[in-house]
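Progress against Task 2.4 (sequence-to-structure conversion) is shown through the following example record, which the project officer requested during the mid-term review.
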Amino acid sequence: MTVLPDRVVEASDAFQSNRESLLRQIAAHDEQLSLVNMGGGQKYVDRHRARGKMLVRERIEALLDTGSPFLELSPLAAYGSDFPVGAGTVAGIGVVEGVECMITGSDPTMRGGASNPYTLKKNLRTNEIIMENRLPTIQLTESGGADLPTQSEIFIPGGRGFRDITNASAAGIPQISLVFGNSTAGGAYVPGMSDYVVMIKERSKVFLGGPPLVKMATGEDSDDESLGGAEMHARVSGLADYFALDEMDAIRIGRQIVKRLNHRKLGPAPRGAGRPPMYDPEQLLGIPSADPKVPFDPRDVIARVVDDSDFDEFKPLYGTSLVTGWAELHGYPIGILANHRGVLFSEESEKAAQFIQLANQIDTPLLFLQNTTGYMVGKEFEQGGIIKDGAKMINAVSNSRVPHITLNMAASYGAGNYGMCGRAYGPRFLFAWPNAKSAVMGPAQLAGVMSIVARESAVSMGKPFDEAADAVMRQMIEDQIEKESLAMFMSGKVYDDGIIDPRDTRTVLGMCLSVIHNTPIEGTRGYGVFRM
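Structure tokens generated for the chain above:
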């Protein structure tokens, strides 16, 4: 075994300062999560309960196997926008009858579960995860349909959601709809396109047009039950496959459906249960630097995440700003690329490209641990070929076919975000720690570039340069970029799949590795042209 050493000194001032800073950021994140978990507020929660209905998270908890975890995805979607944080919907991965499933459900206490632009963004990302990882899907259906004031932003692209349901079904990925309430207009096609549909007596209402619309369109008088009630659909239209007596009965039937799916993973099983790391994951709180300009050694993170803290480092003496190597996590083999001192040079780029090729050759998933300021700039490095060498790394990431998982541990700036498999490069999952930042460059650098451009423009036009105005402008830009680079802002945009407590990293990564092994793990055997 090649066990990583324990170099963390908990009594040091740096460790304690880092820990206090990260705990504050975790607390701020947890505060937002608690608001999301309250739904639309006490008034609407009470009204929902008065109708004899369970809250969406209560339904999910009842659906899951007892004691099994639920990996919620994008819980802070819409943070920083005019829409409710969470986007009025819950999505995540949980185990039902021993099967990993994607579970989604609108929150009726948030604007009646109406879909807004962020709901759509979150749903489409969820659908990507379903398709990439062959996840059986259980939709807890109860929604007021589109948020009408923003219908122009969701009506046209929103049609893709229905296409995704049918594409998943065609790919042999079961689609299950448990209808807990209204599912009207376009929402009627959610159960309509699902493989299995459960409706609840005197609860489920599924129709293209409700009684008022039918009256206006045809002059016909009707009521909810005869038009779209559960019993009608179970006895007359045939839309309902199962008729439940109440919500818990619907959940029972949903679990029974999953039990009969005969779902099997297509990827290799883990090599064993996977022994825990030798060092305390609680120490992860004090490892990432409170000051993003101060680097930290990712080996100290790896040692508290991988099985037995056992890590076979690849090319340890070459391109030392990037750590690469092999390990196991919960018994699954994995290759790791982790930024050390932030900047990527030509050596690091070539090392990464070779390592990614090797992982594809032996069909091993890759984990990217981001803490990068990007590729090195300057005359010496441009002449040395940093562009073509960085392009090799990005080419390797782009054309790699083994599953990727990305975790932003601190910083993800510039093209380094691309080379280290940011969102645009299609990782199966991407998470961030609460201290993470991401932007085209650091706030001070970006403001400085803008200042230099403005100064050169003034000189070229023969105009005086207003130093006072420039100072104000720089501060405004720095403040804006700082705000827009923060983890919760980025998560609100659904640029990651959620923010996680560093202490939960091993568990989250283990769940992700288990999920991706629903599919065959096969690397590419060919690449595009590498510019030499």
